[in-house]
Amino acid sequence: MTPRIAFRIARRELRGGLRGFYIFLACLALGVAAIAAVGSVRDSIQTGLKREGAVLLGGDAEVTLTYRFATLSERAWMEATGEVSEVVDFRSMITVGQDRALTQIKAVDGAYPLYGRVGLDPAMALEDALSGNGAVMERVLADRLGLRPGDAFRLGTASYTLSAILTREPDAAGGGFGLGPRLILRTEALEGSGLLQPGTLFETKYRLAIPDADLPALQAEAETGLAGGGLRWRDARNGAPGMTVFVDRLAAFLVLVGLAGLAVGGVGVSAAVRAYLERKTQVIATLKTLGAESGTILLAYLIQIGVLAGLGIVLGLALGAVLPLTLGPAITARLPVPVEMALHPAPLMEAAAYGVLTALLFTLWPLARTERIRAAALFREVSGKAGGWPRPAYVIATGGLAVGLVGLAALFTGAPRLAIWAAAGIAGALGLLALAALALHRGARWLARWHGLRGHPVLRLALGAVGGPGGEVTSVVLSLGLGLSVLAAVGQIDANLRSAIAQDIPKRAPSYFVVDIQPDQLRGFKARVQNAPGVTRLQTAPMLRGIITRINGQPARAVAGDHWVLRGDRGVTYSARKPPDVRVTEGVWWSETHDGPPVMSFAAEEARELGLKLGDTVDVNILGRDITATVTSFREVDFSTAGIGFVMSMNPGALQGAPHTHIATIYAQPQAEAALLRDLANAYPNITAIRVRDALDRVGEVLGGLAAAISLGAGITLAAGAMVLIGAAAAGERARLYEAAVLKTVGAVRPQVLASFALRSALMGAAAGGVALLAGGGAGWAVMTFVMEGSFTFHPGSAVLIVGGGALATLLAGLGFAWRPLAARPATVLRAQS
């Protein structure tokens, strides 16, 4: 092998320009651009979150307490540390006449906000808007109740005045997901409302302004000095953790969808290289005749393809860098967090690495097969085709590149399991599509010779073309089929999630979820609900909220990691006897007369995930006091019903003396819901009734945005498939030109020739769509079953669109490159072939 000679050959070949490589460049550039753009938006959001962390959080640090205020010693420590702002956050019902709506209340002091600015309409100072019993609320809540500034409304047993519409809440993104629109008032204005009573579900957040503090050291000091108070610490290093996790996971998923797009583009790259090398058969044979070694020829074309791949990657990086900057205002307007759009080198480097590995993976195989081209190809056309497998070294190298690409995805996305399963899914889909292409090719060839099709010349011509040598069946089915598979999987997942929310859950879910029922109100509440017309079922339970701090004497997070049960406070209940609808899966329930140390029943699935065993101890901090309970049983808890479900249940003696409230679920006929809610709100102004249908609608909105983002990524994959489809159709134009000339010579008319071209395209599209249904449906089932842990139902609506879309796309691409062969004169074409 002589590198200098190989370089000279490559340089001379490149003088011919980019002819035959436009699809190669488009496929590679599109895949790289998609990954670069997703990574750039992710880094822009993360940079914005980091820069504005204190504003999003509402302070440099935040200490959160569950339904209690800070003690004098806790408050003194915080005031000695920096400026303090106290925020009380809870849900309640707002009443205007006979109309009621759920709202998320933020009661603030005079120091709020420590950072950022509250936007009001009409513009005024927040201090003036909240003076006396003044309040501000989001426009959606005001519109729902028909309120304008100056109008009055009620919260609990007190009256308030709407001073202005809340247009901007600086710390909104740091507060997490809320079931109701926001309302802000002064904490002292809640006196006399009856809303903050012992046991009421509320959180108190103490924001600290300490711009130059050592936050890690301060966190350690707080968790040590204020230990036992059940506090939760957050600081500006991660002001909106929920948003950060969401962005990271969505970006990881979209990068994997982008990799599917690169895989589709890789099929096009491979097809383009294979077609190019077939045109260079005579050149390669000539070089071998003149004494060039196979290694020299391989290196020459590897250099050439490498230069072109580099050009495609650079184009993709440029597009991926420019798109977020161009669409920056639109992206920023749709996100509830600050976004700092700029050029970020890291995602561009990631996308470049993906592009390089993909280009090598899909070009090495066809390049390696050039070794099989013999010098005799100059004299015998039949020997010019480089078929068969390349040498084992190249097969191993190809496998190594595939493993490297998956490893890179696992490293960059931070989700190795997801990356491996996604790679396995893509490989499985490609395998199915390859088998489908082979089956279509052989089946078409057999049917074309079947005597039963005599008298159907158009169909036989189409089948003969599909089953003949040198066709584009494999490229079309692989590229289009993989793109449609991703789209089909997204469609099935989205349809199943929406179906679960719109149909399955409401069949089992209650009408209302009621919280903050005081113990002395429980008997009257039950009687009023059970005697109300249209009510079919009522469930109640005592409820406290606590934070799991330790497991078997060790810090809980050190034992079980970042499990969702440990991320915040969780509902805790108590019961002397086992409820009739509870199924214990392991262990035994305590006796009704148990008066010993606290014991606990834990949700079975969550216990398994946390690694709990019978006899383990769990410390739960409730109202600033740690309660150590021994796990005596595990029970089945189905949270998907939206009914009453607690991770932890204890014996009454452990909790009964603590201030607490009761919760209830009410199952009622739809026509009875409004009257029941009015009656309960009038009788018990302090309670909060959450309509389950409204909560599910909020979840549906979030899922809709997620599905839209994923569908966009799938659309990029489909666009890459369309590029390959166009490339395959364009590559076959020369063959169709000759075929049309021969058919016309033997008596075929233009409509017959056109119909045969259209039919072959539709057959290939239908095959790609059919396999996409199988692969996409399987992927949808796997995600719903193993990731979402839900049920799966095949939805035929999107499936029909997938098959029809695949057939239509190939039909249009085929017809788009059929007009020139149809218009060519047979004599001119045949004379050129002689």
UniProtKB/TrEMBL annotation:
Q: Which domain of life is it from?
A: Bacteria
**Keyword terms of this UniProt record:** Cell membrane, Membrane, Transmembrane, Transmembrane helix
> What InterPro entries does UniProt report for this protein, alphabetically?
ABC3_permease_C, MacB_PCD, Membrane_comp_ABC_pdt
Q: How does it sit in the membrane?
A: Multi-pass membrane protein
Q: Which Pfam families match?
A: FtsX (PF02687), MacB_PCD (PF12704)
Enumerate the PANTHER family for this protein: INNER MEMBRANE PROTEIN, MEMBRANE COMPONENT OF PREDICTED ABC SUPERFAMILY METABOLITE UPTAKE TRANSPORTER
Protein name, entry field: Putative ABC transport system permease protein
Q: Which organism is it from?
A: Rhodovulum imhoffii
Provide the taxonomic classification: Bacteria, Pseudomonadati, Pseudomonadota, Alphaproteobacteria, Rhodobacterales
